[in-house]
Amino acid sequence: MKKGIRWLALAPALLYSLGAQAQTMTPSTLNASGGSGEIAGNTYEYSVGEMVLVHTATAPNLIVTQGVLQPQEEASGIADAVLPEKALTVYPNPSSDILYLQPDMAYGGKLVLSLTDMTGRSLVKKECVLKTGTEKQTIDLSMFAAGTYLLYATFTHNNQDFVRSFKVQKLK
After folding, report:
1. Can you give the pTM of this predicted structure?
2. Which pLDDT value is given to residue 51?
3. SS3 readout for 45-97
4. Contact present, 160 and 91 (Cβ < 8 Å)
5. Is the domain covering 81-170 a CATH 2.60.40.3080 domain?
6. Are 34 and 69 in contact (CB under 8 A)?
7. Which residue in 110, 104, 164, 102 sits closest to 136, CA to CA?
8. Is 166:93 a contact under the CB 8 Å cutoff?
């Protein structure tokens, strides 16, 4: 009996010396919503509706997690101008088949439309030359599953880009 107790007492030291360790898990989350804001020159990020995440990939000096709090840097350091709300109307939203886009620009230019799913995968990319700035455009949603999609619109005039994004709901 004394031999069994002695081995039991030595087992943790033996396992530790062989490199056996308890599994550790760092908290990983997926955010349902969130955002950021600047207060007194400091940027603060927040998240709403966190739930347990399935996978987080890590490497030295890098952690990649699914969610909304990933840092994003402008390639040029210069942010694009925002396209005014009334300059592009997207309807009907939600839609089951055809999505209409009605530009209301004061001048012509190039309009680039990009539809992505919620993972960021590009589904449709359409480039249109607007001669008057008011030509109606369409995107066919009928081939996609019901769900939420993101539509990015970039209008270029005189080498200046104006951008706007829309959340699009696809029915049935």
Report:
1. 0.56
2. 55
3. EEEECCEECCCEEEECCEEEECCCCCCCCCCCCCCCEECCHHHEEEECCCECC
4. no
5. yes
6. yes
7. 102
8. yes
10-residue block means of pLDDT along the chain (172 residues)?
56 56 49 66 64 62 56 54 91 94 94 92 93 95 93 93 93 88
Tokens of 7: 């081995």
The domains of the chain are located at: 26-72, 81-170
In terms of Cβ atoms closer than 10 Å to its own Cβ (0-12, 13-18, 19+), residue 155 is buried
Q: What pLDDT is stored for residue 68 in this prediction?
A: 44
Distance separating alpha carbons of residues 6 and 11, to the nearest angstrom: 9
- What pLDDT does 38 receive? 74
Q: What pLDDT is recorded for position 163?
A: 93
Dihedrals φ, ψ of 97, to 5°? -140, -75
Residue in the block written with tokens 């009907």: 92
Name the pairing type of β-strands 160-170 and 81-82.
Answer: parallel
